[in-house]
């Protein structure tokens, strides 16, 4: 059975100071295949929650007919619509778009932000480039995407909205919402900080597989120190029936941890020990350098904190836990290598139309 994305969430929200430079935007670049594109990549400094990089990219072909695929609201619900590129600014289309790109940067004469919506990342990026400045305080939201690049799995934060915060009274944050597919052996080891590995699967569309595939990922969770509560947490969230897979949508946050393990003489490489023996370096100086290189750098950890609770259209409050979402056999897909959750947020160089699969947006 193919894995669906029904009820699936994978989003982020970064609030902090944005860093822009001459390389942050690429505007109207053209690839060898005739793909004209805009791209955006920037770091958001989220205080104690670390610096996170987010990006956006979009364009059109200069040699082929172009279309934009838009999910729109209708009287019967919603539908996916294929729209001529020239019609992408149609007011009715933009207004009915279910998940447009949103920029709330400019202000009215009354000093309040107003929002501009776009159905194309190409136009969204051009607008942001014109109005956003280095050092602005922003709230940046979008979708989390898992990819493989040069033999390793990376996490890409695709920007869908940017809001400028015109106040010094704000709280930095780096949060996410992630649906995880969990099996009965999902609980792993607990580290020195009391955080336990939770092994699960995220879902991503694969052109090669022509469908959704599971990406093995590892998040952290802090069980309660109260044994009774910890037992209840394990039973509620991390104990699917054997052979079945539960899907739980978690809220979470990024935590910066500074390693506290001190270096010793045993950590000094042999070639450096030779320099010490020749009197060129003191052993304590080398140990200090190793400590600074390791303990001086904070490690970013993605911690799930609780299942997501939402209110449906009937006013009923629900916890987003789906039992028997699929079977373990459905997770037996080989192309994706095991990866820790959010191992990097480095930009992914992409400038060709072949890297854009619009059909994947609606699977």
Please tally the β strands and state the result.
19
Q: Determine the strand fraction and express it as a percent band.
A: 35-45%
What is the oligomer described by this structure? single chain
- The end-to-end distance, rounded to whole angstroms, is 14 Å
Q: What proportion of the residues is helical, as a percent range?
A: 10-25%
- H/E series: EEEEEEHEEHEEEEEEHEHHEEEE
Mean pLDDT: 85
Biggest pleated sheet? 12 strands, mixed
Envelope shape: globular
| SS field, number of helical segments | 5
How would you classify the helix and strand content by structural class? mainly beta
Low-pLDDT regions: 334-341, 343-363
Radius of gyration: 23 Å
What's the arrangement of secondary structure elements?
Blueprint: E1 10-19, E2 25-30, E3 35-45, E4 51-61, E5 67-74, E6 77-84, H1 91-96, E7 101-104, E8 116-118, H2 121-131, E9 137-149, E10 152-164, E11 173-182, E12 187-190, E13 196-206, E14 211-221, H3 227-237, E15 244-257, H4 270-277, H5 283-295, E16 299-307, E17 309-311, E18 317-319, E19 321-327
Parallel strand pairs: 7-10
Antiparallel strand pairs: 1-3, 1-9, 1-11, 2-3, 3-4, 5-6, 7-8, 9-10, 11-15, 12-13, 13-14, 15-16, 15-19, 17-18
């Amino acid at each position: 059975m193919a894995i669906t994305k029904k009820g699936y969430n994978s989003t982020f929200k970064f609030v902090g100071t944005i860093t822009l430079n001459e390389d942050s935007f690429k505007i109207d670049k053209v690839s060898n295949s005739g793909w004209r594109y805009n791209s955006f990549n920037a770091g958001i400094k989220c205080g104690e929650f670390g610096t996170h990089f987010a990006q956006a990219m979009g364009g059109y072909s200069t040699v082929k007919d172009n279309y934009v695929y838009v999910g729109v609201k209708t009287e019967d619900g919603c539908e996916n619509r294929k729209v001529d590129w020239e019609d992408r600014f149609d007011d009715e289309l933009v207004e009915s778009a279910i998940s447009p790109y949103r920029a709330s940067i400019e202000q009215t004469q009354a000093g309040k932000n107003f929002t501009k919506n776009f159905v194309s990342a190409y136009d969204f990026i051009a607008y942001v480039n014109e109005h956003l400045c280095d050092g602005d305080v922003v709230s940046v939201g979008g979708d989390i995407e898992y990819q493989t690049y040069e033999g390793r799995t990376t996490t890409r934060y695709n920007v869908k909205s940017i809001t400028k915060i015109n106040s010094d009274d704000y709280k930095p944050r780096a949060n996410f919402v992630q649906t995880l597919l969990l099996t009965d052996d999902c609980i792993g080891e607990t580290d020195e900080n009391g955080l336990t590995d939770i092994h699960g699967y995220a879902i991503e569309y694969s052109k090669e597989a022509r469908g959704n595939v599971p990406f093995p990922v590892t998040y952290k969770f802090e069980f309660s120190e109260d044994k009774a509560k910890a037992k209840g947490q394990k039973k509620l969230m991390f104990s699917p029936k054997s052979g079945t897979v539960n899907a739980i949508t978690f809220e979470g946050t990024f935590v910066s941890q500074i390693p506290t393990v001190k270096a010793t003489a045993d950590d000094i490489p042999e070639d450096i020990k030779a320099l010490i023996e020749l009197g060129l370096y003191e052993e304590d100086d080398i140990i200090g350098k190793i400590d600074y290189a390791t303990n001086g750098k904070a490690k970013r950890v993605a911690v799930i904190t609780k299942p997501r609770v939402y209110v449906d259209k009937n006013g009923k409050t629900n916890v987003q836990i789906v039992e028997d979402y699929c079977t373990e056999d459905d997770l037996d897909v080989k192309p994706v290598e095991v990866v820790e959750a959010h191992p990097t947020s480095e930009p992914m160089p992409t400038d060709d139309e072949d890297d854009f699969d619009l059909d994947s947006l609606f699977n």
